[in-house]
Structures are given as C-alpha cells and as structure tokens.
Amino acid sequence: MKSIYISLIAIAFFTLSCNSNTHSVKKSQFTEEQLSKYETAYFASGCFWCVEAIFESVKGVKEVVSGYAGGKAETANYQLVSAGRTDHAEAVKVYYDPKVVSYETLVKVFFVSHDPTTLNRQGPDAGRQYRSAIFYKNDSEKKTVDTYIAQLKKEQVFSGTITTEIAKYTAFYDAEDYHQDYELRNPNNPYIKGVSVPRLKRFQKKFPQLLKKDAH
Fold first, then answer.
1. Looking at the domain assignment, is residue 142 inside a domain?
2. β 165-168/39-45 pair status
3. 25 domain residue, yes or no
C-alpha cells in the first residue's frame, strides 16, 4: 500500500509542477521601441509562469517576459534549466513605468508574493532553478533591496531566514515562446489551476491597491 501511495504522490507532484510538456504558442510582443521607454527589473521566485502573472497584474507594469538568469547563454533552454543542469533561475524581466510604480514597490511585490525562506524551493517546485533571487542592475537598486530586507527582518515578517539571492545582473535570456503569458493562455492546465492561480489570487487579495483595473 505504501508503494502505491508514494507512486500516486509522485504522479500528482509531476502533474502539479512547472516542469511539464506544453504546446507551442507565440506571444504577441510590444515593439522594442515601445518597451525602450520603460525601466526594467529582474526577479526570480519559483516557476516563471506564476511570477509573470503576478507582476503583469501590477499597475504601472507594461510587460513581463519569462526567461532565465544567473547562468550562461549556451545553457538557457528549458530542457536544461528545468532539469537543474544549469545555474539559471527561472526569472522574469519586468518592464515598468517608474512614474506609476517604483522599483521599491516591485521589490515589495516580489517578497509578498512568495516565500523567500524556502531555499531552492517554491511550492511543489524544487531545485536551484526555482530559487528566490533578485538581479539588481546598479547600486541604487541594491540599496533599495538591502534596505527592504533589513526592514523585513526588523519587523520579523517571516518566521524563517530569508534566503533570497541578491546578485548583480549580468544577462537575461527570453524563455521559449510557449512559456510567455502561459497562465493566461493555458487556464485549464492542472498546475495553473492548482498552483499559479491560487498564488496570484492570494497576492491580489492582500494588495488590491496595486492592481490594474483589468487584473484578472
């Protein structure tokens, strides 16, 4: 009986994980000229399907792209990353209007929308590719992150130790087309229904003031 139970758990775990086969869908893109008018920020906090959907619901965010950061260009592909065979994290590139939403607010969104105390794990997804990480571009961003983490520790917001990796941004590699806007385009996927949507809804319920009017 135990072996059967374990097998059932394994099947459920695989079904509800970010590492699953998907069909190819091309994402509609803004032009480079349109996006060049906005600032960018880089975050990783588990499966990028979830993270992309959360940041795209935030007022002032123009676009969010799923991708890979922290590793080398030649290893930036889903098969290698999802298997834990690179040093990449599943990450997102956030294009935002600083006149509407600040970098500090995006950092806040990052921390309140996942558990930064679970080392190399988020929900059902385990491995360094699912680590909590912020890739800062300059000293100003790093200072903002360090200050906010110090505040979280002082206020004892989390019972565990914050394990978020704070690393200098080097490069971001867009994920394959079918990963973009994945939650929106695949609402019936078991992982989306069981993990991504509940995570998004928890965030939206806590911070309705940060949401776009049309956030789902």
1. yes
2. unpaired
3. no
> Among 97, 52, 57, which residue's Cα sits nearest to residue 210?
57
Backbone angles phi and psi of 43, in degrees to 5: -140, 155
Is 216 inside a domain boundary?
Answer: no
pTM of the model: 0.89
The confidence score (pLDDT) of residue 19 equals: 76
At 21 the pLDDT is 52
- What is the tally of structural domains in the chain? 1
Across 132-143, average pLDDT: 98
Range of the domain at 122: 2-19+31-210
Residue 215 included in any domain: no
Which residues are paired to 61 by β-bridges? Answer: 96
- What's the DSSP call for residue 124? T
**Spatial separation of the C-alpha atoms in residues 92 and 73, rounded to whole Å:** 16
Query: Active-site residue among 47, 50, 101, 175?
Result: 47
Burial of 105 per CB tally in 10 Å (0-12, 13-18, 19+): middle
Q: For residue 28, what is the DSSP state?
A: P
Catalytic status, residue 47: yes
Tokens of 171: 């490069």
What is the domain-level CATH number for residue 53?
3.30.1060.10
